[in-house]
């Protein structure tokens, strides 16, 4: 399913194969020989998304851009089932395994591997050919790659990255943080009410 969103329509190369249950919305460019499988969602929320050549987006993966964080995915990259990429730049020949999460402002250079259920956090940079082990967390720039049981160290690095400030423009110490966050984000997402289905 293709949707016009905020006046922008997806541009899909004639050799790309898009499953009928995939959703492609807004300012999205899909390059030659890409495969987008069932249940995948590629949605531009105000910023562009570009998939290079021969990118594979597997079942139920989510790729989302924002006005401040576009998405670029390089050639011959695989986005695994149930993986999520939000506002990140991904290089060529990258492997994002099942259930991986890549957050806003992250940069993953060529030939990296982010293995099953691993996380590349907000504004984190993975240099070329870096591997994030199964279930581990990559955080910061310079990057620290930590197992999940080292939560205190992960949290120390995350605090400096300021997720609510960077993504939503809100101070973490705001007493009604979640009220303001959901009102602001909900208002932005409500713009989909004017989307037009193209197929």
From TrEMBL:
Top-rank taxon, per record: Bacteria
InterPro entries listed in its UniProt record: Hexapep, Transf_Hexapept/Carb_Anhydrase, Trimer_LpxA-like_sf
Keywords: Transferase
Organism placement in taxonomy: Bacteria, Bacillati, Actinomycetota, Actinomycetes, Micrococcales
Species for this entry: Microbacterium thalassium
Record GO terms (molecular function): transferase activity
The name this protein goes by in its record: Carbonic anhydrase/acetyltransferase-like protein (Isoleucine patch superfamily)
């Amino acid at each position: 399913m293709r949707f016009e969103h905020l006046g922008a329509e997806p541009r899909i190369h004639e050799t790309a194969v898009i499953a009928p249950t995939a959703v492609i919305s807004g300012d999205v460019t899909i390059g030659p020989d890409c495969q987008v499988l069932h249940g995948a969602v590629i949605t531009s929320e105000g910023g562009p998304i570009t998939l290079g050549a021969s990118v594979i987006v597997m079942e139920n993966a989510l790729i989302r851009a924002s006005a401040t964080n576009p998405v670029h995915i390089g050639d011959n990259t695989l986005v695994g089932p149930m993986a999520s990429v939000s506002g990140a730049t991904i290089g060529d020949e990258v492997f994002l395994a099942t259930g991986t999460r890549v957050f806003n402002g992250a940069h993953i250079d060529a030939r990296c591997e982010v293995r099953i259920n691993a996380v590349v956090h907000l504004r984190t940079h993975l240099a070329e050919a870096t591997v994030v082990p199964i279930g581990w967390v990559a955080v910061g720039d310079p990057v620290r790659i930590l197992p999940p049981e080292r939560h205190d160290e992960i949290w120390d690095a995350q605090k400096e990255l300021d997720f609510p400030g960077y993504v939503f423009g809100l101070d973490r110490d705001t007493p009604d943080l979640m009220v303001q966050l959901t009102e602001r984000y909900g208002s932005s997402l409500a713009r989909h009410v004017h989307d037009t289905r193209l197929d």
